[in-house]
Amino acid sequence: MFESNLNKEQPKIMHIDLNSAFATIEQQAHPSLRNKAIGITNRISPNCCIIAASYQAKSIGIKVGMGLNEAKKINPEFIILESDPAKYHYIYQQLVSIMKNYSPKIKMKSIDEGIIDFHNTTNLINQTILRKIGIEIKETIKQRLGATITVNIGIGSNQFLAKLAASLHKPDGMDIIDYHNLTNTYKNLKLTDLPGIAEHYQARLNAFGVYSPLEFLNTTADNLKRFVFHSNVGEDWYYRLRGYEIDNNLTKLGHVGRQWVLNKPTNDQSFLASSFQYLCQTTGKKLRYKNVDARGLLVWLRFTNGENWYLRKMYKTSFYSDHDIYQRAIYLLNQRPTNLNVQTMGITCYQLTKTARNQISLFDNINKNNWLTDAVDTINEQYGIFKIFTANSLNSTKLVKQKIPFGGTEYFNLLIESN
Amino acid sequence: MDPVIYINKIVDVVVVFNHKNNPNICMPIRIRYQNKNIDLIELGLRHPTRKGSRSIHIFDMSDGQNDYRLEFDSESLLWKLIAITNTNYYV
């Protein structure tokens, strides 16, 4: 009954996903770690969180997000390593380079996964069966990066189906989902197996009597819009499930920020101010890297008792220098409840506009401040980021480490330079 | 016990350049460290990184027993042994 509504276009989207990326990269780099249960964390401590686990670790029940203590209980010989961003960046660059051989339209979804759009490619590529290209890509990755590094490849008529196909047979799998096998594929899956459906959306669907992907497919666009999602999101899901592309929207940079979980929660003003100054410097660096200025600033804290606090302010003039960000941020920070210990702190710049920093100000003190920022940036570009920084944040530069970002890869180059 | 022993010392290295052996075009095969020769048999991964404007190549190698991390500074042309990982620890 649904087949008339399915997208019958030939699948032209390929999703490539590095299997257990960080863990397999480390296993490739360290032959002694191959075929062992290993995990990666950002900072080794007894309670640290595993951000990637090898397939050997996953097979014995060690999951991403688990604490090291818990993993050691499952397997006392579980090996934990600290993340090495430069290594992952290299693999990321190689993956991008391989993908660009096939189409100019590629999009990296995160550090370890990306999409090749084969629409409007040359005839030579367009007329080749995508499964054959997939096998070729797998071989190239093994040759250029090493035999331990494997990828899952999914091919579909939209990004959603391509990602779903890439998740069907891990590791080192390759699947195609098109209108012929779409309903059969959905038959064997749970709702949470669909990319983008987690517990929250599952609960919404369950409340409407939808318990499987096939029932989800069977629900009308109107019902999904009016009764399940209460917005256009429902209609989007209707088309997404049928293989129509609706996830091609370009996202606009809305905010830039940084957060940090304190090793030892405290309410010590000088320590917090010092750490905050460092966060302001990294945020300023991101703003300048993106060539934007900000007008709004949000400072937020999470205390050890679980309470959250935030304060935001919009300014008449835009700002981008570390000094300007810190001056504004410390004014907001000083209005916090001082009797509580801070567990997590964060700063977000918003209301971003294209930078006007080339424009010379009428006021000399503003010019001097901006020129100082430019001079420090130039020196740091030459000798490494954070070779020069404010004396107040000296201790924080040792404590607050830049670590692997999840999701976007837009600051990856910046991250590599700062390590 | 931490299985990684940090060395961070400049060492003498014998390297083979073989353009046909892509991607392992440049492969260190022997290190001279503490008056001993260490023969490297496997290149795990080579990756470039930067220290300021200097380009550094990092080689993760193995001699079949231990793992070695070597750094090649493309400006000074010096090799540095960064760390040795005692892999018996992992057995």
Explained architecture:
The complex is a heterodimer of chains A (419) and B (91). Chain A is an alpha+beta fold and 419 residues long. Chain A is 40% helix and 20% strand. A 5-stranded mixed beta sheet of chain A has the order 5-6-1-7-8. A 4-stranded antiparallel beta sheet of chain A has the order 9-12-10-11, with helices on one face. In chain A, β7 (151-156), α7 and β8 form a beta-alpha-beta unit. In chain A, α4 (85-100) packs antiparallel against α6 (130-145) and α13 (269-289) crosses α14. Chain A is globular and about 65 Å long. The termini of chain A are far apart. Chain B has 91 residues and is mainly beta. Chain B contains no helices and 8 strands. Chain B has strands spanning 4-10, 12-17, 26-33, 36-39, 42-51, 54-62, 67-73, 78-85. In chain B, strands 1-8-7-6-5 form a 5-stranded antiparallel beta sheet, with no helix packed on it. Chain B starts with a strand and ends in a 6-residue tail after the last strand. The model of chain B has no long low-confidence stretch (mean pLDDT 88). The interface between A and B is medium-sized, with 27 and 20 residues.
Unreliable stretches of chain B: none
As a whole number of angstroms, the C-alpha radius of gyration of chain A is 24 Å
Low-confidence stretches of chain A are none
Shape of chain A: globular
The main β sheet of chain A shows up as: 5 strands, mixed
The span between the termini of chain B is 14 Å
Principal-axes geometry of chain B comes out as globular
Helical content band of chain A:
40-55%
Look at the structure and give the mean pLDDT of chain B. Answer: 88
